Please model this.
Amino acid sequence: MRMIAADTVHEIEIARSRFRCALVRVGDVDAATAVIEAIRREHWTATHHCTALRIGSDGGRTQRSNDDGEPAGTAGVPMLEVLSRREITDVVAVVSRWFGGTKLGAGGLVRAYGQAVSESLDAAGTLRRVRHRQLLVAVGHEEAGRLENALRTDGHRVADVHHGPDVTITVDVPEDGTDAFAHWLAERTAGTIEAVDAGPRDLYLP
Model:
């Protein structure tokens, strides 16, 4: 799954109509609704505030769109199609339109609203949300430095190093890579150290 790298506002003009697209990362429908209402209040002079949102994982995604007075299917639907095609989730898109006096027709509106979201996504950039497991590796102080260096050298993602009675190194490992990591650790430590699974963690990667 992909998410926007940053909240973004981008504006285009077509036939003297302004299309202002706001993309905001959200975690649930209530947060998306709050964003939409805040934009309506701030930009109350706009003719329309058309919206599309996608929230959640593949197994339980919520998708909604709203044309806000534009002809049915000419605004919210093409906006949602762009988000779906780019596989973006946990986002709400709000395109506020100020009518410029020239009617665009159904096809023109579809292109305009889709373009506003597409260009905004290009401006925002995207990140992949990748599920990892946090694995804890406890090692004596005398061995900690060598093991940490080996982890980093071999490309493992060291998230934290905690110094207590022992040194606990937290490593973020992709869910499908835990067996390979266990094998790597056994080879590096002659089987004397095993990692403890501390649970899942989502990372946002380019």
The longest strand covers residues 126-139. The chain is about 35% helix and 40% strand. The helical segments are 29-42, 76-85, 105-124, 141-153, 178-188.
